[in-house]
Amino acid sequence: MPSKSNYQKSINKFGRRKNWLKKSVLNKIMAFFTNSVTALKTVVTAIGAGVAVWGIINLLEGYGNDNRATRF
């Protein structure tokens, strides 16, 4: 019985290749999504920190206006 080539072994009974995406391609796609999620985490953290600093500044500005003697 003749042995099958690697290409013939990768064909299923419907004539399609079993592993049409190689692991290297899948790894590149997953690396892209992993890097994207990491970048989005950084952006969201930076926006949150900026809003927090802005809120603290607004709170501190309000404390200077509570002296009734300075009002007319």
From TrEMBL:
It holds the Pfam family Maff2. Keywords: Membrane, Transmembrane, Transmembrane helix. The chain crosses the membrane at residues 32-57. It comes from Butyrivibrio hungatei DSM 14810. InterPro entries: MAFF-rel. The keyword Transmembrane helix applies. This is Maff2 family protein.
